[in-house]
């Protein structure tokens, strides 16, 4: 029998605090070798490929989490086109969990909710280990959409945010963000009306936009800043990458084949040797970035299925404990 | 809402004849470019990797089927170890189907039943196009387990089987096969007590065993035979591959990275240039093998997710038409 869970059941048992802890543990597991995460495989539905013309993709992201002894996969879509016209969010997804010894399927649940939480949590956990021991920081945020909210909520689980500068091409979105997040951000939220105002005196810059025009300029970045290009397309100038004192990624293979560094990697200007360390190595105390106060750091968490599967297993255990889920004879096992 | 289907619902709507037709159409689509099938990604749970030690794997196999306008993924496990001890079959799997324009998930169903049918169907469809116009043939079969039955049933959908030689390391299994399949095979089923008796006067040799010892010897293969190494491990001598007059595969990328040709490909003795054509090119009349009566042909269908997704979509349409399935608010969409 396989348990099928509704989105409401899932949302009732797991929150950002849980996912920040899970992501931290799972990054450590990746570095220790007890979390297995093959490079994700993309089904291109027109994001880059000419056919089919749906302006989207699905990524298959399997993982094994040794410290939970669970195998799972997230299949996650990011589609614009008709989906955007229908008013649906960019991301949709499902997660399957399996017993890795028996090969039986124990759970089917949503994958988008966990994707959103863990994408925020990745940034927060990376900042935790880059700024070891720090209690508070200032954040610059490009993009006041759903991920903008989630990134901020995740960072607020780990740090007091003293100042948050937010810019959105649609200023009312930034103003709405300011209202929405006023109880999450301890300090002040400053709405910027030009993108170059954001990097003022911040410790971290996060870009979560649909931009493809490399809007983030290298000349804006001060020493002592970590830049997180989190959007799906080209948000930052190549020079932001090339001038970095350290490059931190979540998964070396994926970082070279997808996201902000892909074009430089394809051109041979960035290689595996250009990558300083992984978030996992920082989490496991296997690498020390030294004094980061005057460093320009680039951090790229492309996203690994392990983060999703680990959070899904926590949710699964809690839902089972609460008697949630519906037994379904999907596979006859 | 997502429809969840039980294994009984699925089995009631689709049979081998359906899947043979679906596989034929989908191979053609692969060659025409209207079926998109990225190389599968393996989560190794100890099949080759040292950790975790579960003697198995899960493969993530996404595909887009243009002629059905459906996207889907099969996540399929092949596990020995504890699963075998529990008396469960080698393969377990689940299939998810999505609307590729909207990114919404429309179906969750079993993946093992369709895997078994389509793995048989692949062989039958390949033989159909290699032996164009032939009505009957003789088959040699190594392995009288579940896939032995399925391979035979599939070939019997396309050809009259005049003679079938079967060998199994466990002779009672071969004798049971003889009983089980006497109404499926038109002609005689001959149980062999030594492996070298199988290739006598056959047009096709199929190995569907768990052997890892290269038991199929090159010297046994006569001209005018197609060899299908269908097991998960090393069933045939490298010389069987190297002496072939033609090599036909389902997916060039996968054929070099998995299955019978992997070790030769890793050693550089087989490359993409060694591959003569694909089953899809034969199905689409884009390649002609010429007179095959004196040729030694090797055919390796590693298995593509497209075959599973296409068959699952047929089953989905039929189950919906019959009012089957249970609506479930898994994703909130």
TrEMBL record, chains A, B:
<dbReference type="InterPro" id="IPR023401">
    <property type="entry name" value="ODC_N"/>
</dbReference>
<dbReference type="Pfam" id="PF02423">
    <property type="entry name" value="OCD_Mu_crystall"/>
</dbReference>
<dbReference type="InterPro" id="IPR003462">
    <property type="entry name" value="ODC_Mu_crystall"/>
</dbReference>
<dbReference type="InterPro" id="IPR036291">
    <property type="entry name" value="NAD(P)-bd_dom_sf"/>
</dbReference>
<protein>
    <submittedName>
        <fullName>Ornithine cyclodeaminase family protein</fullName>
    </submittedName>
</protein>
């Amino acid at each position: 029998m396989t348990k099928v869970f509704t989105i409401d059941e899932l949302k009732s048992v797991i929150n950002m605090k849980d996912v920040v802890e899970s992501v931290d543990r799972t990054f450590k597991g990746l570095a220790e070798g007890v979390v297995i995460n093959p490079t994700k495989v993309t089904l291109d539905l027109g994001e880059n490929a000419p056919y089919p013309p749906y302006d989207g993709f699905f990524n298959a992201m399997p993982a094994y989490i040794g410290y939970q002894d669970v195998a799972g996969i997230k299949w996650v879509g990011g589609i614009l086109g008709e989906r955007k016209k229908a008013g649906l969010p960019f991301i949709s997804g499902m997660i399957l969990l399996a017993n890795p010894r028996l090969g039986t399927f124990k759970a089917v649940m949503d994958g988008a909710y966990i994707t959103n939480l863990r994408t925020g949590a990745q940034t927060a956990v990376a900042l935790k280990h880059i700024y070891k021991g720090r209690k508070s920081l200032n954040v610059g945020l490009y993009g006041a959409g759903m991920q903008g909210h989630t990134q901020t909520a995740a960072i607020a689980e780990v740090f007091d945010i003293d100042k948050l500068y937010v810019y959105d091409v649609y200023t009312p979105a930034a103003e709405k963000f300011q209202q929405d997040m006023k109880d999450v951000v301890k300090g002040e939220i400053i709405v910027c009306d030009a993108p170059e105002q954001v990097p003022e005196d911040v410790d971290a810059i996060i870009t979560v936009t649909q931009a493809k025009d490399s809007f983030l300029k290298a000349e804006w970045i001060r020493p002592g800043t970590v830049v997180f290009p989190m959007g799906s397309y080209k948000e930052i100038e190549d020079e932001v990458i090339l001038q970095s004192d350290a490059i931190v990624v979540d998964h070396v293979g994926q970082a070279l084949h997808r996201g902000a560094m892909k074009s430089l990697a394809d051109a041979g200007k960035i290689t595996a040797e250009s990558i300083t360390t992984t978030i996992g190595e920082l989490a496991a105390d296997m690498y020390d970035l030294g004094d980061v106060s005057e460093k320009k750091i680039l951090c790229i968490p492309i996203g690994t299925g392990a983060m999703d599967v680990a959070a899904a297993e926590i949710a699964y255990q809690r839902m089972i404990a609460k008697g949630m889920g519906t037994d379904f004879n999907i596979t006859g096992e």
